[in-house]
Design brief:
The complex is a heterodimer of chains A (about 350) and B (about 180). Chain A is of the alpha/beta class and about 350 residues long. Helix content of chain A is about 35%, strand content about 20%. Chain A folds into two domains: about 170 residues, Rossmann fold, CATH 3.40.50.970; about 100 residues, Rossmann fold (3-Layer(aba) Sandwich), CATH 3.40.50.920. Chain B has about 180 residues and is α/β, with parallel strands linked by helices. Chain B has a single domain, classed as Pyruvate-ferredoxin oxidoreductase, PFOR, domain III (Pyruvate-ferredoxin Oxidoreductase, domain 3). Chain B contains six helices and six strands; from the N terminus they run βαβββαββαααα. Chain B is globular and about 40 Å long. The two termini of chain B are about 25 Å apart. Classes of the chains: A alpha/beta (about 350), B alpha/beta (about 180). Chains A and B meet through strand 8 and helix 10 of A and helix 1 and strand 2 of B. Strand 8 of chain A pairs antiparallel with strand 2 of chain B, so a sheet runs across the interface.
């Protein structure tokens, strides 16, 4: 099965019943598969006039209680930025799939990249936090899409599946389980203002059609959802909560794989470069070479770096000029070496072996 | 045992579909592992197209083909771009109706596009002829496996045409000399 198809299958298994978007290479197969499947199971597929409308329709669908998603790539992702901020501010659970291609601008439509990793974290204006996952196989395209819906519903935050063209277009073996774990949105208790958060900093979600009148706005709002855009303390409390509800849970959300924790030279990856590193470790069975692979990239779980107490260098192969390497550097005193490879090609094992030898 | 198979031709010949079918045969009907990847431009039809399949009895880590041992070449441009550096002990199945050059490695000439047109009346099945020939020459998947995978993958109503193409590929490969 193809990675993009596996993503769509994961969404369907997770109970996604709304897809709104605009086709773009290399993500189109996600939309195609949803268009073929959703109408048959009572869901809705709608091709909007552009990606701005695509994410807008997803936000609307989510407020009706549906699990909703969109899928896009670079240029479409850029168009979505404003409404991503709206989804953050209105605490709307939704899943956005970005099958990354070469940028800036229209760049390389058919080639792989991982150069939107900071855009997904910081691309909309204002301070905020989101969740982003990064699959490294067709199997994970399925599993992490399911997981993305659960995280989105639990934290009421836009959740991103940040895949790359290689994983999206690759076909490989996959096993689809009979059922998948599902975490529901916490319902709003009657009589509670719709944006009053509980101790976990997450408000309950009002059920559509159950008699709630809720005002949903991108303006700074009080617990009732009414705009109140001039109070410094209200704005500060709201934005801090939007960030903290995700960031304070980052070690719980964290999802990573550790190979050879006693290693001195440690590769850190997410997405398709993880496959090259897995090959390098397979071909060089040596406990002194380690691998930390992130399945959740944002919120960044810095404690994962402590899994390698003997590390003397972190080597970070990415399909960009060093986006996550910069984040890693913020959290460690040992050298962090970006190993950029972009233009569409994937790092070869030989190339990473050479990079590694310089530190041995 | 890892095999790396590279398909090349021009957009519209079914270069990517060929790789998908081969990978499917290996995974679904031979019980092996396979990874299929591709390179294609936004222009699609007419431009050089390349796809690849890795087949292994163990899980596949690095997903890209680096040093193919098997080539299926269906255009001169595809040969020049993706076939010309084939390693000496590789095996190349080439569509001799469209590729003028001959490689330094072992090869078999299969006039797939000509035969598709003349014998079957549809040049669209040339890629399936090539798949049949590939399987006969290299045994990279079983004949029953490729047959089932072809039937899974082709449009309804074209099954018998495609099976004829596959069998024609078997025959051409049996007749063709490995050079």
């Amino acid at each position: 099965m193809q990675g993009n198809t596996a993503c769509a299958e994961g969404a369907l298994a997770a109970g996604c019943r709304f897809f709104g978007g605009y086709p773009i290479t290399p993500s189109t197969e996600v939309a195609e598969h949803m268009a073929a499947k959703l109408p048959k199971i009572g869901g809705v597929f709608i091709q909007m006039e552009d990606e701005i409308a695509g994410i807008a329709s997803v936000i609307g669908a989510s407020w009706t209680g549906a699990r909703a998603m969109t899928a896009t790539s670079g240029p479409g992702f850029s168009l979505m930025m404003e409404n991503i901020g709206f989804a953050v501010m209105t605490e709307t659970p939704c899943v956005l799939v970005n099958i990354q291609r070469g940028g800036p601008s229209t760049g390389q439509p058919t080639m792989s990249a991982q150069a939107d990793m900071l855009q997904c974290r910081f691309g909309s204006h204002g301070d905020y936090s989101i969740i982003a996952l990064s699959p490294a196989s067709v199997q994970e395209m399925f599993e992490l899409t399911v997981h993305a819906f659960n995280l989105a519903d639990r934290f009421r935050v836009p959740t991103f599946l940040m895949a790359d063209e290689i994983i999206g277009h690759m076909r490989e073996r996959i096993e689809i389980p009979d059922s998948v774990p599902r975490e529901e949105r916490k319902p709003l208790t009657k009589g509670t203002p719709p944006f009053r958060a509980d101790e976990d900093m997450i408000p309950g979600f009002p059920q559509f059609g159950k008699g709630y009148g809720v005002h949903v706005t991108g303006l700074t709002h009080d617990e009732r959802g009414y705009p109140c855009a001039t109070s410094p303390s209200l704005h500060e409390d709201l934005v801090k909560r939007l960030v903290e509800k995700v960031e304070s849970a980052r070690h719980e959300i964290a999802d990573y794989r550790v190979t050879n924790p006693d290693a001195e030279v440690v590769f850190i990856t997410y997405g398709s470069p993880a496959r090259t590193v897995a090959q390098v470790l397979h071909d060089n069975p040596d406990k002194r070479i380690g691998h930390l692979r992130f399945r959740v990239v944002w919120p960044f779980p810095e404690k994962a770096l402590d899994e390698f107490p003997d590390a003397k260098v972190f080597l970070v192969p990415e399909q960009n000029l060093g986006q996550m390497a910069r984040e890693i550097e913020r959290h460690t005193c040992i050298p962090v070496v970006p190993l950029p490879r972009f233009g569409g090609a994937l790092h070869t094992p030989a190339e990473l072996e050479k990079a590694m030898e310089a530190w041995r | 045992m890892r095999h790396e198979v590279r398909f090349s031709g021009f957009g519209g010949q079914g270069i990517i579909l060929s790789a998908v079918i081969l990978g499917r045969a290996a995974v679904m009907y031979d019980g092996n592992y396979a990874v299929q990847t591709q390179v294609y431009g936004p222009e699609a039809r007419g431009g050089a197209s390349m796809s690849a399949v890795i087949i292994d009895d163990e899980p596949i880590l690095y997903p890209k083909v680096t040093d193919p041992d098997i080539f299926v070449i269906m255009s001169q441009e595809g040969y020049e771009k993706y076939g010309v550096h084939a390693r000496k002990d590789a095996m190349m199945v080439l569509d001799s109706s469209l590729v003028q050059s001959r490689p330094g490695c072992r090869y078999v000439e299969i006039p797939a596009t000509r035969e598709a047109k003349q014998t079957l009346g549809r040049d669209i099945v040339a890629n399936i002829i090539m798949l049949g020939a590939l399987v006969k020459v290299t045994r990279v998947v079983r004949e029953e496996a490729i047959e089932k995978a072809i039937l899974d993958s082709v449009p309804k109503g074209t099954e018998s045409l495609n099976l004829k193409a596959m069998k024609l590929g078997f025959e051409l490969a049996e007749k063709g000399k490995i050079q």
